[in-house]
Recover the amino acids of this structure.
C-alpha cells in the first residue's frame, strides 16, 4: 500500500465552498403509448352494406432519454480517472517502478509527485507492494454546473490486502496491518480533454 505521512500532510484541506452540487442520475423518458383505430361496419335498413369507417391511427410516442448534465458527466469522468490512478499505482507498486510513465496517465501535479516520491522511497528501501486497494469514491461537488473543470472526490479506501513486502525475500516489510483510509482528492480537466487527479490527502488507518 502507499503510505504518505512523511510526504503529504495527514489531511490536506480542499476548499469545498463555492461549488455546485449536481445529480449524476439519468432520467428516462416516458414510455410509449400507442392508440389504435378500430374499423366499424354496419348494415342499412334495406340490407345494403355500409362502407366501413375507420379512425385514423395516431403515431406512437417514441420514448427518449434525457441527456446527462455537464456536471454529471464530469463527475463520472473524474471518478473514472481517480479509480484509474489507483489501478496504475497498484500495478506499478508491484516492482516499485517510480519512473513508470503509467503513473502520469491519471495523475498530474502534486498527486503525481507524491506517488513518484513514495515509490522511489520503496525502491530505495527494497520494498514492493502486493495486492490492490478497494476504493469507494463519491464525487461530492463540481466547480460549475455548466462548464465543470474541477471535481472533489471523497473515498473510503480499503488497503487491508494491499501490503508491503521485502523485494529480496518476500517477507512482510513491517507488522503494520492494512485498513481503511479516508481520502480527499481533487480531479481536474486537462487541456487535452482528459481528467487527472491533481492532489489528494490520505488520512490515518481507521479514519473511515
Amino acid at each position: 500500500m502507499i503510505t504518505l505521512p512523511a510526504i503529504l500532510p495527514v489531511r490536506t484541506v480542499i476548499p469545498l465552498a463555492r461549488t455546485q452540487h449536481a445529480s449524476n442520475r439519468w432520467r428516462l423518458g416516458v414510455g410509449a403509448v400507442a392508440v389504435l383505430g378500430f374499423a366499424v361496419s354496419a348494415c342499412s335498413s334495406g340490407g345494403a352494406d355500409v362502407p366501413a369507417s375507420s379512425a385514423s391511427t395516431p403515431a406512437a410516442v417514441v420514448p427518449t432519454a434525457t441527456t446527462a448534465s455537464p456536471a454529471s458527466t464530469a463527475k463520472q469522468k473524474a471518478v473514472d480517472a481517480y479509480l484509474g490512478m489507483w489501478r496504475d499505482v497498484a500495478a506499478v507498486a508491484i516492482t516499485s517502478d517510480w519512473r513508470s510513465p503509467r503513473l502520469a496517465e491519471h495523475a498530474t501535479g502534486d498527486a503525481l509527485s507524491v506517488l513518484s516520491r513514495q515509490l522511489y522511497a520503496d525502491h530505495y528501501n527494497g520494498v514492493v507492494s502486493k495486492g490492490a486497494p478497494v476504493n469507494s469514491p463519491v464525487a461530492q461537488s463540481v466547480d460549475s454546473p455548466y462548464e465543470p473543470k474541477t471535481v472533489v472526490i471523497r473515498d473510503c479506501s480499503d488497503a487491508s490486502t494491499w501490503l508491503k513486502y521485502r523485494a529480496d525475500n518476500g517477507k512482510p516489510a513491517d507488522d503494520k496491518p492494512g485498513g481503511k483510509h479516508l481520502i480527499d482528492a481533487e480531479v481536474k480537466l486537462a487541456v487535452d480533454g482528459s481528467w487527472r487527479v491533481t492532489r489528494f490527502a490520505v488520512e490515518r488507518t481507521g479514519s473511515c
User: Anything to note?
Assistant: Confidence is low (pLDDT under 50) at residues 4-54. The longest strand covers residues 195-205. The longest helix spans residues 70-93.
